[in-house]
Each structure stands twice: as structure tokens, then as C-alpha cells.
Amino acid sequence: MVLKLPVSLPMVEAARSRIAKIAIETPLLLSESLSARCGNRVYLKPDHRQPGGAFKLRGAANAVLSLSRDQASRGVVTASTGNHGRALALAASCQGIPVTVCLSELVPQNKVDAVRDSGARVVIVGKSQDDAEAEAIRLGEMERLHYVPPFDAPEVVAGQGTIGLEIADDLPDVDTVLVPLSGGGLAAGVALALKARSPRVRVIGISMRRGAAMQASLAARHPVQVEEMPTLADSLGGGIGPANRVTFGLCQALLDDVVLLDEAEIAQGIRHAYASEREIIEGAAAVGIAALITGIVQPRGPAVVLLTGRNIDMTLHRAVINGADGLPERGL
User: Fold this and answer.
1) CATH class of the structural domain 9-55+153-330
2) Does the pTM of the predicted model rise above 0.85?
3) What is the mean pLDDT of the chain?
4) Which of 28, 143, 179, 198 is most buried, by CB atoms within 10 Å?
């Protein structure tokens, strides 16, 4: 039986052409330190170097460039843990489209400021991504704004999937790809693109133990709600939505495994990225590195680790580099 999926390889290929003037293609960088640890070639995919500091620009740009003239004229609204909102503001500004971004009180202040500085109207509401999403949908209906989901939309998934196409082009013999996992837009898109080119490649989703909504949903075999808690991997927070229509099914069909990390392990990933790779990355971007240096994931062949965002509060980064294993101000 052929599995019918809501996103296809031609959609990802079309997204690659569509976003070329907004998002950059990122190279694979051989990590000598991780390769030595793992006994296999390990490459970093530095998508934290996208304009706006996160991979999210790919999906946001594809969503914006797929809008009808009427949708664009009304403006767009979204909910975000920070990076998607900033990316949507950057992509929409290129088209002269007004943007409203709803953020919860858990979003770090540096990310709130970055979204606002990118030209978006910012609305702070509630204590979770689910609260922010509910407000974004309400505003969309009340003000006739077009709602652009942060992950659960075919256009967003297809945009993120362009990362998978680049990996397949640059490393045809790739064996394992480690992908930060939150709502599943990135993991679903990357897995779809890679497995269309090489069905035997392993795609592993990596998340934090503190509120991993997609992992809990996959374990339950249906979308479930989890408590959103403070974590170093703040960009991975939030639910997947009880009416999830795209990413849950894709992740269920395409991910080979999901692993969870505690806060100390995520901190190790941040420290390794800085000390050995000379990269400043946020906790959500460090989970792939952390999974390798702790031995939780052991690649059987050439591996790729996605570095997805660099928008960490620098006071927090300094604290982690100096030995903190959580969010010092919140006692984690």
C-alpha cells in the first residue's frame, strides 16, 4: 500500500526554488571533534546562520510566497516561541505584508525584542504556546488576518524540507540525521525529503524531557497536550495541537526514533558547540550535538547534525559556558 502524505517531494523541490532569494543554502561542515568521538564522519548543518538566526526562515518564506493576493493584502498572524515569528516578519517585510506575532510569557525577552525589531506587532498572552496559538487564531478571525501556523501547514513543512534536499545533494551516503523535534515541521520536512532520495537513511528526532509534546503524542498514537515548562531548549516548547493535521502523521510515518535529553545534557551540547566547534547556538540547536557526545545516539555511518538557531540570550549562554546546567534564574 502506498502511504498518502500531505506533503510531497515535488512540493519541497518547488519550495527550494521559491525561497532562493530569501533563505540561503547552508553547507555541511565536517566536525573533527564529533567525528573522532563517534568513529564516523559527522557533519554540522549550520542553519543557525540563516537571516534571523534560525532555520525557520525557510518555512516562513515558503508560506509567505504561497499566499494569494487577497491573503497577503489582509496581513498575516502567527503564534511562535520566537524564531518562527521573527522569520515570518522578515519574510513578510520583503513583500510589504503586515505581521502580528503572538508570544507566550515563557518566550525569552531577547526573542520578544528580536520579533518586534523585525517589524512585527507583538502580542504577549498566556503561559504556553497553546495560549499564544489560541490568541493568534482569535485575532485572525476578528481582524481578518491570514493565520500562518508555526509548523502544522504543508507550505511550512515543505520549506523546512529544503534542508533535506541540500543534505541529500551534499552527502549522498548519509546514514543518520539528527533533527531537533518540537511541533514536527522541521523533522517531517527533512525526513520526507531525505527518505524520498534515500529510503534507508535514519532520521532521529531529538527533544528535551521537559514538555516534549511530539514524543508524548507519538507514544500515545494521537496528539496529546503536555505541560509547557521552562527549559534551555525553549524553542522546542509548546504543543502540537489537538487537531494537528500535517506534522503528527508525517512524524509518525517517517521518523525512525525520538530521544529525549535532560537539561544537563543540553547544556553539554551548548558548551561543546562553543568550545570545540566555535559556534554560539541556543539550547534547541544543541540537542543533536548533545545526543552524540553523551552516546545516546551512535551513528552507524556518516551523520549530519542540524544546528537550527543561534538566538540564545547571551547572559544565559555565558552562565552555561561557565558551568550552569539549566536556567539559573529559574533554578532548573
Assistant:
1) alpha beta
2) yes
3) 95
4) 179
